[in-house]
């Protein structure tokens, strides 16, 4: 046994509880990101990092969690990684049979990235904290007997859960607080337009807090973009037919974010919609051609061009 070659790179411990946790019910990328963070965390204190911490960035996680379809490389989007990190940070691993809702990580912004702390790292990475297989086999036998006893209650419990969800949804329907549901996902045009405006503002001269580039954080901005497309300016009705096309919206975003005055004043989607008529008027007054003929020739990165094409 001593002469057998050692496996390089060390190891991590993964609890069997993982398959009973909430993260295992999420899309596969959630587990992939979690295992990457767990494997990169420091086993011992090293330089400025404590045990269970790592330094990383969104782009590094994207690259590490990419995969291949034949010869074509597929990479998860920034917003997808942001959403997963946010979930791990705010919601985390929930016991399948309990009511606790522990978060799995904490993050701290750093230059060129972030410091991620895997919570309870010492607990889960210490073999002494795990039951022996013999104990687990005894527990399995008990669980089988308990399952047989409770099988008749499953349908009743499911019905109660559905009723509870219905009551919660009804009680929150008139509240201004978000109910956790996202109406505008990554593939919707309102979200893409909101994300495009957000990124343009981030590149501008005014430095201010902005929503994270995720559907959850940009939900209000996406709703404004949806109203701008369907209804038009603030106060317009659907019957007025004042809505702006997605092409018009994207071109007005480009124009206002390169205009010296407006790029310092249009710093949110609600403000953009509120001032949309002034923006259109000023653009024409400044000698620009009609919106329908306006061709954006300003230099763009491939990422910006991809976002623009997605809106239009």
Which percent band covers the strand fraction?
Answer: 5-15%
Number of domains: 2
Percent of residues in helical segments? 40-55%
Strand order across the largest sheet: 1-5-4
Alpha plus pi helix count: 12
Content-based structural category: mainly alpha
What would you report as the Rg, rounded to the nearest angstrom?
Answer: 25 Å
Our measurement of the CA-to-CA distance between the termini, rounded to an integer number of angstroms, reads 63 Å
Order of helices and strands: HEHEEHEEHHHHHHHHH
Low-confidence stretches: 92-100, 167-178, 289-300
Give an overview of the whole structure.
- With 312 residues, the protein is mainly alpha-helical.
- The protein has two domains: 16-124; 189-311, no CATH class.
- Helices cover 44% and strands 7% of the residues.
- It has twelve helices and five strands.
- The strands form two sheets. A three-stranded antiparallel beta sheet has the order 1-5-4.
- Helix 7 crosses helix 8 (219-230).
- The N and C termini lie far apart (63 Å).
- Residues 92-100, 167-178 and 289-300 have low confidence and may be disordered.
- It comes from Halarsenatibacter silvermanii.
Helices and strands, with pairings:
Elements: H1 28-40, E1 53-56, H2 58-64, E2 67-69, E3 72-74, H3 78-90, E4 105-110, E5 113-118, H4 121-124, H5 133-150, H6 154-172, H7 189-203, H8 219-230, H9 246-256, H10 269-274, H11 276-285, H12 302-311
Antiparallel strand pairs: 1-5, 2-3, 4-5
Q: How would you summarize what this structure contains?
A:
This is Lin1244/Lin1753-like N-terminal domain-containing protein. The protein has twelve helices and five strands.
């Amino acid at each position: 046994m001593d002469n057998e070659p050692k496996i390089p790179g060390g190891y991590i411990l993964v609890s069997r509880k993982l398959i009973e946790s909430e993260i295992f019910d999420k899309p596969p990328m959630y587990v992939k990101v979690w295992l990457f963070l767990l494997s990169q965390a420091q086993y011992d204190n090293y330089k400025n990092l404590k045990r269970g911490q790592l330094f990383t960035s969104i782009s590094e996680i994207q690259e590490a969690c990419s995969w291949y379809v034949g010869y074509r490389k597929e990479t998860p989007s920034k917003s997808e990684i942001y959403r997963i990190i946010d979930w791990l940070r705010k919601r985390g691993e929930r016991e399948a049979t309990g009511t606790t809702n522990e978060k799995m990580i904490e993050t701290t912004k750093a230059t060129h990235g972030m410091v991620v702390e895997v919570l309870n790292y010492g607990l889960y990475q210490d073999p002494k904290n795990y039951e022996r297989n013999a104990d687990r086999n005894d527990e399995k036998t008990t669980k089988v007997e308990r399952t047989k006893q409770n099988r008749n209650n499953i349908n009743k419990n499911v019905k109660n859960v559905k009723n509870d969800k219905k009551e919660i949804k009804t009680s929150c329907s008139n509240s201004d607080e978000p109910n956790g549901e996202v109406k505008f996902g990554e593939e919707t045009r309102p979200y893409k337009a909101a994300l495009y405006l957000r990124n343009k503002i981030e590149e501008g001269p005014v430095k201010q807090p902005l929503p994270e580039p995720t559907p959850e954080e940009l939900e209000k901005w996406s709703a404004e973009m949806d109203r701008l497309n369907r209804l038009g300016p603030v106060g317009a009705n659907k019957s007025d037919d004042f809505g702006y096309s997605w092409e018009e919206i994207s071109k007005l975003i480009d124009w206002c974010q390169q205009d010296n005055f407006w790029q310092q004043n249009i710093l949110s989607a609600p403000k953009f919609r509120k001032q949309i008529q002034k923006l259109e008027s000023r653009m024409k007054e400044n000698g620009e051609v009609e919106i329908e003929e306006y061709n954006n020739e300003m230099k763009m990165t491939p990422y910006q061009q991809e976002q623009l094409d997605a809106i239009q």
